[in-house]
Amino acid sequence: MDNNKVSNRKRIYAKEEVCIGCRLCEVHCVVAHSQYKNDIVKAYKKSPQRPLSRILVEETRPVSFGLQCRHCDDPKCVKACITGAMQQDPDTGIVTNDESRCIGCWTCILACPYGVIKRDFKGRKVASKCDFCIDLGGSPACVKNCPNEALYVDEVRVLNNEESKEKGGTAK
Amino acid sequence: MSLDYSTSEFTINRDKDRCIDCQVCVRQCANEAHYYDDEEQKVCSDEHKCVNCHRCVTLCPTRALSIKKHELEFRANANWTENAIKDIYKQAATGGILLTGMGNDRPYPIYWDHMLLNASQVTNPSIDPLREPMELKTFLGRKPESLKVENGKLAEKLPPQLELEIPIMFSAMSFGSISLNACKSMAQTAYENGIMYNTGEGGLHRDLYKYGRNTIVQVASGRFGVHPGYLNAGAAIEIKIGQGAKPGIGGHLPGEKVEAEVSLTRMIPQGSDAISPAPHHDIYSIEDLRQLIFALKEATNYTKPISVKIAAVHNVAAICSGIARAGADIIAIDGYRGGTGAAPTRIRDNVGIPVELALAAVDTRLRDEGIRNQVSIVCGGSVRNSADIIKAIALGADAVYIASSALLTMGCHMCQKCYTGKCNWGIATQDPNLTKRLNPEIAVKRLTNLLHAWSHEMKEMLGGMGINAIESLRGNRHMLRGIGLSDRDLNILGIKAAGE
Question: Which pLDDT score is estimated for B430?
């Protein structure tokens, strides 16, 4: 690998020192994945099967930060998926779950080292996880709506072998 | 147990059609005015705890919340107002002095709003600031009696000066009364915009030494955090004799707010109350003040200007004349509208005089005595907008101090509960859950925006007067006219009435 090779892979990172634990990221994630993307009230009150939030704020006061799918370079969930619903885009590296093929076996949840996949029991019973708001266009909903700029999108820098060893394995 | 007569000050209106029970308000209110009822499966509110800080209103994603003054009314009484009655109930229950935060909120006249500015019309053309250069740069410090020039250069060295890109500085707010994030935001903004900020009496935190060239370090009566490194870290040293919000009494930081970092920076034990005594216990006369001024000059090798900050009180002109003759390079006058983290309500609302009158009186007296060049005058105590700044300079100020304006920029909503340490905006608190709410990256952007906006407005007003440099406005009382003022007021301000 070249030194300092910057891929076109992007990830969402959290700044825990400015996360205020309000969980507005969770609210906006729900809205962005509901059928009422521009109406928070309708998304919450009218949706028959309100989607789960794909971001979860981990908290041990005063530390808190939003955690979602890391879209790993080597995604264990894709390998674990028995139907092939979990796929990784070779260019962007974004891992998405095709809910029409997902059978809710939860093997991906067992395989995920970060615990960011959730079980969605409403309706068809599928695995629910961050899709980087690919369908929405623009910034992911959580990043756009954080009131204290505690989430940001940044390009992943691909590490060379020395840096990788220094960090004790592949860092994302 | 006897009756508590206290009733709620505010009501919380929650629009049931808009509330989605997301619980953001529950998580964000440090006063616990909102809570989630598991049994009812919805968010409920206890308005008795609400202080009207608007945190929940601002964060609510559906704008479902609104805070209003509580509808409970006493029988109409122009003398025994609701506040007058409630203050008695409070003191009957606690036996203590009433505490409050921020500045005097009583309806005394605001002299800024009784002064009008000139504009050029026919005989003296106005200047367009977008097309002509405008100078807002100011130098604070002692100026010599006259300039001796030899071979096109100054023959003698000037006394030390502070260089300001614009005539605005952030006033003293101690680390302890406000959070480290708030201090960092002002320090970085001052650094990036070529102005100064003031440490206040809380000492200088080690993370802020890098902004030293834009820092005024304060030596107050408690001498918190004062050591040789501290004195040499800043660009100037300010001796705090008094502050506008509580003239004549000392500061008090409750022990609860003195956690590890505050303790280290102030050089006092953790958990101990930080009490600043009323006089400096080594300054009991003007000669003692001269001694301290020169002790500080010796300690810093005469390389830094020494400022003396006083509250605007009776005979302020004579006091300033004495301070100038005692060797100060800058005098900062803080009017009675000045803010604070904690002060007794009666002192805040009844002691001191307006900075507008004090400023005019001091500038006139120093000019009459022929010593106006010996000090730069800085004024503060509710400078609310760029027009106030222009008027202050026209009355005689070299620069202004802003504090409440800076806090509002960073999120303050003037709820006046700073002394509780539960500031929901992360400003007047040391609680780590709350201080994270003030993101310095965002605050620096907002403070910089304010400075840019005000600079532009000041240039427009100057251009309108046909002036292109701030030094042509300083003390230029001809640019002001009074409106709705008595003859006496006009006399003290040294300005004519509108129409004259």
Answer: 94
CA-nearest residue to A38 within chain B is B62
Which DSSP state fits B210?
Answer: G
> Are residues A48 and A8 both part of a single domain?
yes
Position A147 scores a pLDDT of 97
Number of separate domains in chain B: 2
Assess B162–A contact: CB distance below 8 Å, yes or no: no
Q: Closest chain A residue to B439 measured between Cα atoms? A: A18
Between B345 and A138, residue with greater pLDDT: B345
Contact B436/A20, CB-based, under 8 Å?
yes
pTM of the model: 0.94
A150 touches chain B (CB under 8 A): yes
Of A41, A61, A150, the CB nearest to B62: A41
**Phi/psi of residue B344, each to 5°?**
-65, 135
B379 three-state secondary structure: strand
Q: What pLDDT does A165 receive? A: 55
Kindly state whether residue B1 falls inside one of the protein's structural domains: no
> Across the interface, which of B18, B23, B436 has its CB nearest the CB of A17?
B436
% pLDDT > 90, chain A: 74
B24 interfacial to chain A (CB closer than 8 Å): yes
Provide the 8-state DSSP code for B209: G
Identify the pLDDT of residue A172.
Answer: 41
Interface predicted TM-score (ipTM) of this complex, two decimals: 0.90
Mean pLDDT of the residues in chain B: 95
Residue B437 touches partner A, C-beta closer than 8 Å: yes
Q: A127 to chain B nearest CA, in Å?
A: 23
For the domain that residue A89 is a member of, what is the CATH number?
3.30.70.20
